[in-house]
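Hello,

I think I submitted the magnesium ion job twice by accident. Can you confirm which output corresponds to this input? Input:
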Amino acid sequence: MRLSVPGHKDLRKIVVLNPKGGCGKSTLATNLAGYLAAHGNSVAIMDFDPQGSSMRWLKIRPGNSAPIHGISAFDVRSSATRSWQLRVPPSIKYLVVDSPASVPAENLAELTSGAHAILIPVLPSDIDVHAASLLMKDLLLIAKVSRRMGRIGVIANRVRENTVAYRKLMRFLNSLAISVVGVLRDSQSYVHSAERGLSIHEMPTTRMKQDAERWESIIRWLEEKLETPLTPRDFHRPESSSDILQLAMPIDRDKPPA
Ligand SMILES: Nc1ncnc2c1ncn2[C@@H]1O[C@H](COP(=O)(O)OP(=O)(O)OP(=O)(O)O)[C@@H](O)[C@H]1O
Ligand SMILES: [Mg+2]
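Support: Only one job matched these inputs. Its output is below.
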């Protein structure tokens, strides 16, 4: 599957990414799109996931909620129609990309190229932390995402504070020298709002307040990134396959992170 994200000159692109399944990509993408739309912005979600979770969420979205344009990128029929099917209307200012599980390392460059922000949800479990450490290596070494541009933001998701797993996750994230831009609670608010095609920010109840407040740091970080103009460093060029092989060799994929 091709994973390059088309767009137009003034588009602000946010890619939600982590090949580890079930870490909260679609939850993050839909809640972010809902937040932006509810604040009066023109927003599209591009869904690369064959499960189509974001598109399903859009379908059940109430007619009176802020509009979000949906682009299903997972069922593109042929390359001839690809650019037409994936076109982002010129009126759209923000594009949120929901990516699939199991993205091969060699596709990370095209998926993240030209992104203003790359958001990575990570769950507090050993398996997820190990997968996240491999992803960071692939992003930096293979996709050549510039650490200096600071466009990668990690979000600790489904956390229960005061647990060993949470402390381990935060220790790992802090060791990466990559911004931890938010910590989201493990909360039924996300389940209930998703069932209604809404983000937690749009739910007609104050019970979501505690969770909504967790988004303030994410939104602040995003605002800064979205206003930072792209430079040539933000257009990542994939390595040739022999380079990928060489770079991948020293990484011991069976060994958990220190
Ligand atoms: N902060 C949270 N609190 C409670 N439940 C959550 C939270 N984040 C995600 N979930 C739940 O976890 C499950 C997986 O989330 P989600 O579908 O967003 O993950 P994903 O990374 O998109 O999965 P996939 O890799 O299969 O596309 C869903 O049932 C979702 O409702
Ligand atoms: Mg998903």
